Amino acid sequence: MVDGMLGRGQPLLELRGIEKHFGPVRALRRVDFTIEAGKVTALCGDNGAGKSVTVKIMSGIIQPDGGELVWRGRPVHLRTPRDAADLGIATVYQDLALCDNLDIVQNMFLGRERRRFGALDEGPMEQAARSTLADLRVTTVRSIRQPVGSLSGGQRQSVAVARAVLWNSQLMMLDEPTAALGVNQTALVLSLVRRLADQGYGVVIISHNLNDVFEVADRIAVLHLGTMVAQGEASEFDRQSVVELMTTGKVERADSGSLAANRASKEA
Fold first, then answer.
1. Is 112 helix (H, G, I), strand (E, B) or coil?
2. Do 31 and 228 meet the contact criterion of CB atoms below 8 Å apart?
3. How far is residue 129's CA from residue 108's CA, in Å, rounded to a whole number?
4. What 8-state DSSP symbol labels residue 147?
5. Which of 14, 82, 171, 216 has minimal CB crowding within 10 Å?
6. Which of 250, 244, 248 has its CA nearest to residue 262?
7. Which domains does the chain have, with CATH numbers?
8. Residues 224-235: pLDDT tens digits?
């Protein structure tokens, strides 16, 4: 369990009225987005919907032109990725930013190595890496000293997530975490995502795979052409309503059964 976290279901990060322009292009239009502690939120949208821009704003890579970000009830300004990391916001991109020629411990401490009398303090780093992987129940790696280049796709995702946990992150954003993975490796990653939420972390997954979304998400948010057209509990959606929201920004079916989707249709 994450120390000092809000209770499950409490807002961890909120985007309120976020605007972003790139020249004449309006990439985000007054986007509201709430991420809760202890829940998995799936951020869905077609190509060009604004998912990447939203994630980059939450990661401190780019700054919004309007609106505000609220972290645990307090307005914040994320001017750099370091600002986001210092708060406890971590983003695991598709490329994972791992070094294949380094082992698991070296990757988990890359840039934050522990030293003693000027030399690497290997023992505590190994212990911390092993403990973090054990807490996340990542048990498929042969040795924490094996090169990351020898790991499967699912194991590499697990190491990238464990690194974020080790660096005291409280919100994990995972960009297409199961892309190009096989069935078994996908199951491994989704199980890890679920455990993160169960341990109190806020988790955002950006995914086109609706099977994965409905497998693991507690909440779903849908962007369409820069507008947040729906967000709510996953139980308020079905696959067809999400597809319609992603492609048209509204739900045409009167019997969709999706409360969040119906609200979005009326507001559109």
1. coil
2. yes
3. 7
4. B
5. 82
6. 250
7. 11-88+168-267 (3.40.50.300), 104-167 (no CATH)
8. 999 999 999 999
